[in-house]
Amino acid sequence: MILGIPVYEGVDVLDVTGPFELLNWAGFDVRIAAETPGPISCRGGISIVAPYALADEPQYDVLWTPGGDPNQLACLTYGTNQTYIDVLKRQAKDARYVCSVCEGALLLAAAGLLDGYTVTTHWAFVPCLTERYPKVTVAEGHPRYVWDRNRLTGGGISSGLDESLALIERVFGTAKAQSVQQTTQYYPHPPVTSAIPKATSCPVPSSAPPGCC
Hints:
7 helices, seven-stranded mixed sheet, two-stranded antiparallel ribbon, 11 strands, alpha/beta, Rossmann fold, single chain
């Protein structure tokens, strides 16, 4: 089963690498692709390598859309280069599952792929969905992930791990998900607790920032 992660400059590294680890252990054929193959600078400066070109990718069984830097999200959404959004539309058409982590939900929403669905995203970006995409319903309570038919969306950056296990369980069964949990020793127990703040405005610019293609 092919799972494609289309990446871009400024992508959140954990949105890609955390799920990659779990999904790869489960047996997915995980493909990281970019408009131009090669090193991709993630938000914060660390780089990953995308071996594949988006234009040459086969049909994905699972489309996995990561979040990233707010300015880059605005470039992808409002810039003249709509390659990334077009890839999401094309791949989602025949994919069995369409997924996003964190602010990746905004990219799916920009492509019209979440209209009529209930979703979640990072708490700070909830206003982006409610203000700009009225056909999308945001789940209450900031859940770690939300299933709505074949759409799977994750909350904040770390929720991609829970979301990955949810996808593994849906595709391969509970035993496989438990095996991956054991292999990666994913039994979270954070040393601190806090409340999720309420966001009042969208941090993503409403037009393409300077420097976008």
